[in-house]
Amino acid sequence: MQAVANDSILDVRGVTLQFGGVKALSDVSFNVAEGSITSVIGPNGAGKTSVFNTISGFYKPAAGDILFRGKSLSGMAPPQRAALGLARSFQNIALFRGMTVLDNIKLGRHCHLKTGPLGALFFTPRARREEERLRQEIEERIIDFLEIDHIRKAPVASLSYGLQKRVELARALAMKPQILLLDEPVAGMNREETEDMARFILEVRREWGVTILMVEHDMSMVMDLSDHVVVLNFGQVIASGIPAEVQANPEVIRAYLGSGDVHALRARYKRTAPASEKPGFRSAA
Ligand SMILES: Nc1ncnc2c1ncn2[C@@H]1O[C@H](COP(=O)(O)OP(=O)(O)OP(=O)(O)O)[C@@H](O)[C@H]1O
Q1: Where is the ABC transporter domain (predicted)?
Q2: Ligand 1 atom 16: the closest Cα is on which residue?
Q3: Which of 2, 22, 225, 284 is buried most deeply by CB count within 10 Å?
Q4: Which of 22, 182, 236, 238 has most ligand 1 atoms within 8 Å of its beta carbon, as the pocket-test mutant?
């Protein structure tokens, strides 16, 4: 049996996922180091979302396993995985649009509520107050950190796309994650919104100590932020390593050329300035 790397928070081991005749993932393996920003990239249809859905428990793999801190997640439903410390955002924003920003954030903490209607009977009022106070502290810290105090009472539907994505990040943070899965965090954002989000992602890792696993098409962002990049093509891992290695890998270049998705890699080369010279970006090192 394969040993678990000491610093690994998540191990994806030999995962195969099938939809009828379509093999979305074939024997996919990779590790996510604790405290890292790890990205999964690949052309359209490569299997990135399938990996995320398997990790968060929405899809059941036909073979393989996923280990969180060395413990198999097999058989655990998505809420159980979330309670363990595995939070995620979605490619298409999954917020309650009619509800306020604050109420959406409060929903995030729901997976950690200790007191259900029955539990409340055995929970002293003092302990309940204490728990409520702690929750409020976390909410305030998140609101302050993500600079969304001015919109806390606004309904989500009234916000710009970039702000909605930020609220989604806030809700994920309220789940007190140990690892945060971000599915295309900057898709559809303008340049300024993208740079803000990049800054927040770096700070989530640095200030909150949360490991990040993200799927993203924006190559500039992936290469600037990631410590480690895993490349998928046709459901298989074709390369993994530090950004510079992956970018120079001929098989990766071929995969992007072959898929007609070469603009994604080209976008990277258009912006040749080092990360430190780009406004809003800081080196992931
Ligand atoms: N629910 C599903 N039913 C059937 N086939 C699916 C389903 N979800 C994904 N697939 C197939 O599995 C493969 C991988 O899809 P997936 O969405 O994981 O790729 P992706 O890399 O996330 O793509 P994109 O970059 O376009 O979001 C594709 O061939 C896709 O058509």
Answers
A1: 10-259
A2: 47
A3: 225
A4: 22
Q: How many CA atoms lie within 13 A of 87 on its CB side?
A: 25
| CA 267 to centroid of ligand 1, rounded, Å | 23
pTM: 0.82
What's residue 109's pLDDT? 66
Superfamily grouping for domain 1-85+177-285: P-loop containing nucleotide triphosphate hydrolases (3.40.50.300)
Q: What is the pLDDT of residues 194-227, one digit of tens each?
A: 999 999 999 999 998 999 999 998 998 999 999 9
The mean of the pLDDT values for the chain is 82
- Does the Cβ of 45 fall within 6 Å of ligand 1? yes
Q: Where are the domains of the chain?
A: 1-85+177-285, 95-175
Report d(CA 255, CA 235) in Å as an integer: 12
